[in-house]
Structures are given as C-alpha cells and as structure tokens.
C-alpha cells in the first residue's frame, strides 16, 4: 500500500476561509527546507515554533509570525512538513501561498494531506475518514466518536477480526495441503467454533457501526397529514422557533420546510410537508407532489391526525386506500393531535402495527411521549458509539456477513475445502476495504475528494 511522494511539494491554507486571529499555511514535500530558507531566512529546529519575519521573492515583508518544521517521517503526512502561522488575513495568506507556489510547490487537492498520510502509512483509511468526520461533527457526541475512530478504535476492532479470519484461513488451507492426515481438520468442530466466534464479533462491530453512522448522518423525519392537522405547529415545537407560518386556514404550507435539530447528540432532519388532500389548486397540487417525494426519502413519518375533525380509524382507513400505506407502513407513527378539543387523554397505544401518540401540541399535553418515542426510534438507550462510521463501512460489513454465510454453508454441506477457503478470503478482503488494506484506487479518489482543502 505504501506510495511515498518524493518529487512533489504541495501547499494549502490549513485554517478556514475568512478573517481570524491566526491563519496557517501548510506545506508538505521535499521542497520544505528550501521554502523555509527562502521565506523565513532559515530552516528552524525540528518541532520548535520559531518567530520569524516572512518575505516574498522580492524581499517584501509579508508578515511576522511563527514557522514550524516537521522532518520526515515524523510528521502528519510522513514527509517534510512546514507550517507558517500568520495573522488571519485572507490577503496575507494568499500572498504567502503565492510566494510558496513561485518556489516550486503546487496547490494541494482536497484531502491531499490526509491522502499522503494514508499512503505513507501514518494512518489507515478509517482514520483518514475520521478526520473529515471530526471536522464536520454536528454534535459533541459525534465529535467524541470521530475522535475515537481517529485514535484507531474502529481500525483496532477490524484488524483484530481480520487476524481471526486469517488464522482460520491458514487452518483450513493447511488441511487442504495435507489431505492424507488422519484427522479431517475441516470437518472437525474447531472450524465451526471459530466461524461462530467470528460471526459474533462481526455482529457486535456491525451494531456499533450502525450507531456510528447514525451519529454522523442522523435520520430524516417527515411530518405528514391533512391540512390544518398541526404539522407546522409540531415543526415549530421541535425546532424551538417559529420556522413555519401557523394559521387556521387549510393549505397554508405549500412548499417543503426543513429544520435541523439534535436529540442527545443525534441529528434529526425534520421536514414539514404540505397537507395531503384532493385539491384543484395547481400550486397546492405541486406542494402535495413534493410532499409525497419527501415521504419517500424519509426514514420515519409522523402522520398527524386532526383530533377535532378525524378519528384514528378514519386515518387508518384512509392510509389503506393509497400506495403510501403499503410502502411506508413500518415507518409511520400516528400523532393524534388536539386532545384538548376532544375527550382523549395523553397516552400511547398500538393499532394495526402503528404506534399512536395522543397529545396536544398547543397545550403541551403528551409531548413528553413524543420525545420518548423519538428516542426509541433512534435507539438512544446507549447513544455513545465507540467510533463513527460511514455507509461504505456498513456495506463492507454486510458483504463480509454474506461471505461468512457462504463459508458456513460450505462447512455445513461439507463442500470442497477450497470453496470454504475462498469464502474466507472474500470476507477478509471485505473487511480490509474498511481500513484501506484492500481498496480500489477509484474509491480512494472519491473518499479524499470529499475532504476540505488543506487537510
């Protein structure tokens, strides 16, 4: 996997765009020593922040600040790395970068510093992705989990599991190479026990990875129902602000409204949709069409019932008349709103596979039931994941499970040992895709292109 960059030097700002107290320009590659001498007048001692004036090629003063030198391989990228710490003016940072470009460097691509760290085996792919996830973390919980991944928690679990798969492969292949031995190594109970042990560990990692993905992505919840059922009021309640216009006039909401909230560190994307009903209004029809598209993308749907105008049975019967019911049945929670105007009391019940929450958004009765329900949807009994994860990790883990299932089948049906060994090899490759030990170059290009410049 090692691919050392030996003839190329890159530069980029390492701090966010805009003005700030400090701005950092990062350089990586073999020209670092020459660039330091040309701009700062000397190559500073390794890892010692040194105050120096910075000059361009015409000996015009750019700024005065700190220069720090990290000699290869003891740097983030594994190459010589140089950092210039200036005042955080975009003009000064641009002058510094232009001066460095004139000295032979080139602008870094998005994620190229992390990419070089990966190829120089300073970090693996899961750790590299954790850098981007840590920067993009939307909550303290997600940040802590991303930091655990960056420190190698996810990689450690994957590598330990890969070692077990390799050990089992060696055992099976040894049996294939020595078929004349008195003991049938593949048919004995040891292989079955090792497969079971691997299956248990793989399932535990998969469950943690699903939590890690949830912390990174969150889920999308759509608010649906007939006009004037209280969708906009519920959006305002969940977001804690007046995001949507609330009136007694049906059809007030014509377009999709979105809000971002957190529940115990997990992001929720709340979508308020237009009321779904038969309408001759062209604008309202378009809003209803967009509402149905939003429901299709949502992981959960809160279907509001106007307790003043509808009953649960009315809505249940209505849902059965449209394709929505069959397609989204498992995603729908019924919210019986306006209990303050009916004889209902705040409570939770079950009917026809749906959870039904009886509440009043206006008075606040039963809203704690909604909070509890949302937590149960998010499985927040233990929301602190051991690491952060991505969809591609789940795909690799799912593929590893499929390969393991084929291996178990080959053992159970006493198929040729070569088939069992090949299934184990496939599983090993699936797991190794997570850390980058076995990964296609096009996937690597896509992953690092999503990073920010200078990281």
Our count of helices gives: 15
Radius of gyration: 29 Å
CATH topology of the largest domain: Rossmann fold
CATH architecture of the largest domain: 3-Layer(aba) Sandwich
The parts where pLDDT drops under 50 for at least 5 residues are: 243-254
> Looking at this structure, what is the CATH superfamily of the largest domain?
P-loop containing nucleotide triphosphate hydrolases
Helix-and-strand structural type: alpha/beta
* Fraction of helical residues: 40-55%
- What summary fits the major beta sheet? 7 strands, mixed
Percentage of residues in DSSP E strands:
15-25%
The overall pLDDT, averaged over residues, is 83
How far do the termini sit from each other? 20 Å
What CATH first level of the largest domain would be assigned? Alpha Beta
Q: Which series of helices and strands comes N to C? A: EEHEEEHEHHHHHEHEEHEHHEEEHHHH
How many separate structural domains? 3
What's the arrangement of strands in the largest beta sheet? 8-9-7-10-11-13-12
